[in-house]
Amino acid sequence: MQYQKTKEILNQAVADLSQLQMVVRQQHWYMRGPEFLNLHPYLDDVMAELDDQRDLIAERLITIDGSPYSSLAEMVDYSTIEAHPGKWGTPTTERFATIVDGYHHLAHLYEKGIKAADEEGDYSSSDILTTCHNDLEKRIWMMAAEINQAPNIDE
């Protein structure tokens, strides 16, 4: 079988993207207060970006003869991102810090995937993950700035 390590990491990304999207959705649904009108639609964009990445990565996995996780049970079983059930009254700084942590987790996974894909000669998967990684880093920077933190993408 070709690209075995790459397939494993791509599938992990599918599960983790699904979980992070749900984490963002919880923050999105349980938001109130003076920042609501600006941040609620912003989090819609964040969820759409995560969904686009998940679809792109799952389709790449299928292209290289892999089988992406596709059920809720699989996403729960295989995701390595912690669930964060929504609750009312959570400060925006805490909400965004939770999301930024998830983005950092994905960025590190993508870095492993880029390395594995390069080592296995799957340059298309490497390119896809590199593009997605760049998008993650920009989102980390923007969300960290919103809560007056440095992006810390070099850690």
TrEMBL record:
GO molecular-function annotation terms?
Answer: ferric iron binding; oxidoreductase activity, acting on metal ions
Ferritin/DPS domain ranges (all copies): 8-150
A Pfam family of this chain: Ferritin
Entry-linked InterPro entries: DPS_DNA-bd (IPR002177), DPS_DNA-bd_CS (IPR023188), Ferritin-like (IPR012347), Ferritin-like_SF (IPR009078), Ferritin_DPS_dom (IPR008331)
What's the family?
Belongs to the Dps family.
Q: What is this protein called?
A: DNA starvation/stationary phase protection protein
| Biological source species | Lactobacillus helveticus
> Which lineage ranks, top first, belong to the organism behind this chain?
Bacteria, Bacillati, Bacillota, Bacilli, Lactobacillales
